[in-house]
Amino acid sequence: MTSLFWKASSILGIRLGHVVHKMTPQTLVLCGPSGVGKSTLLKKLLEEFGPHFGFSVSHTTRSPREGEEHGKHYYFVTRQEMEDAINNGNFIEHAEYSGNLYGTSKTAVQDVLENGRICILDIDTQGVIQVKKTDLPAQFIFIRPPSIEDLEKRLQARGTETEESLKKRLSIAEKELKFGEIDGNFDRVIVNDDVDEAYEQLRDFMLPAINKKNGD
Ligand SMILES: Nc1ncnc2c1ncn2[C@@H]1O[C@H](COP(=O)(O)OP(=O)(O)OP(=O)(O)O)[C@@H](O)[C@H]1O
C-alpha cells in the first residue's frame, strides 16, 4: 500500500514535503556525537509519549544477526538493490559503515507518518546534511556534551569501547561538535549535562508537535 502510494506520488510528481505535511506532524531528527546520550533521552521521550513517536525501519546491506527480522529491525537488501534505490532517489539519507551501506528510505519514513506518528531519525551529521537537501519537514536537534572530556568519560563508563574505537569516536565527535555549533544547522542545541534537565528541554521543544498531533 505504502509503496503504491509512493509510486503514485512519484508519478504524479508530488513532493515529499507536500504529501507528508498535509497528513502528519513532523519528523524529529536527533543528532549528536556517539555517547552523548541520544538513546538515553529518546528512551525517556518514548516512556512519556511512546504512542506519538515511531522509528523508521532502515535498510542495510549487512547480513542479519540472529533474531533480527527483515522489515522489523532492518530491511536486509543486496548492495546492488540498495545502490539502485539510492540512484533512483528513494533514500532520504544513507551512509557506509564498516563496508556496509545503511540508509533511510522515503517509504520507511512515510510508513511511520502514515500511522500518525512523529518519525524519529537518529542520524549523524552527514545524514543531517542529506536530510536537509530533501523537502521532508523536520525539526533538527543537536545533543552535545558539556565538554569533550565528559563525552570521553561517558563512553568509558558505558563500557562498549576499546581504546581504539574510543579514540576514533572522539575524533569524529570533535568534527560533529563543530558542525553542531554552526548557526542554522539545528533548530535547537541541547547540552546533555544533567540528563533530567536535558530531557525537559527536549520535551518542551517537542510538545507543540505532540499537541498539534493531538489536535490541540
Ligand atoms: N547527562 C548524562 N550524564 C551522565 N551520563 C549520561 C548522561 N546521559 C547519558 N549518559 C550515559 O552516557 C552513556 C552514553 O549514552 P547513550 O548510549 O544514550 O549515547 P548515544 O548518544 O545514544 O550513543 P550512540 O550514538 O553511540 O548510540 C550511557 O552509559 C548513558 O547512561
UniProtKB/TrEMBL annotation:
PROSITE patterns with a match to the protein in the record: GUANYLATE_KINASE_1, GUANYLATE_KINASE_2
GO molecular function: ATP binding; GMP kinase activity
Record keywords, A-Z: ATP-binding, Kinase, Nucleotide-binding, Transferase
Domain Guanylate kinase-like: 25-207
Pfam families (UniProt xref): Guanylate_kin (PF00625)
InterPro entries on file: GK/Ca_channel_bsu, Guanylate_kin-like_dom, Guanylate_kinase, Guanylate_kinase_CS, P-loop_NTPase
Database matches in SUPFAM superfamilies: P-loop containing nucleoside triphosphate hydrolases (SSF52540)
UniProt cross-references to SMART domains, sorted A to Z: GuKc
GO cellular component: cytosol
HAMAP family: Guanylate_kinase
Family listed: Belongs to the guanylate kinase family.
Name used for this protein in its record: guanylate kinase
